[in-house]
Amino acid sequence: MKNLKDKMYKAMAVATMTAMPAVALADDADLLGAVKTETGGLKAGVLSIGAVVVGISIAFALVRIGKRGADSVG
Questions:
Q1: Could you give the percent of the chain with pLDDT greater than 70?
Q2: What Å distances lie between residue 2 and 6, 7, 30, 49, 73, CA to CA?
Q3: Which residue has the higher pLDDT, 6 or 39?
Q4: Cβ neighbours around 31 below 10 Å, total
Q5: Which one-letter DSSP state was computed for residue 29?
Q6: What does the alpha-carbon distance between residue 69 and residue 3 come to, in Å, rounded to a whole number?
Q7: Are 35 and 23 within 8 A, CB to CB?
Q8: Where are the domains of the chain?
Q9: Looking at residues 40-65, what average pLDDT do you find?
Q10: Which residues have C-beta within 8 Å of that of residue 22, sequence separation ≥ 6?
């Protein structure tokens, strides 16, 4: 497990070190704007997925509460 964790950290470091110079050396504002636009779209996607997950968990909690109430009546 530790070996896998070490490999993951090394892969993340390589990905970061590969991507950061491209952003830092981008003297063209269009590239930086594109990165910001993609990041904004990603945020919206993550928020929408989070909203769906929260909605599903609330639905499961309501069903569980309803089952407890039905079991206590009968």
A1: 72
A2: 6, 9, 41, 31, 51
A3: 6
A4: 13
A5: H
A6: 49
A7: yes
A8: 2-73
A9: 83
A10: 31
Q: Cα(14)–Cα(10) distance, rounded to whole angstroms?
A: 6
Cβ(61)–Cβ(68) below 8 Å: no
CB 23 within 8 A of CB 32: yes
Sign of the dihedral defined by the CA atoms of residues 65, 67, 70, 74, in that order: negative
Take residue 40 and report the two structure tokens written for it: 């904004």
- The tens digit of pLDDT for each residue in 3-32 reads 888 878 788 777 777 666 666 665 555 666
The three-class DSSP label of residue 37 is helix
**pTM over cut 0.85:** no
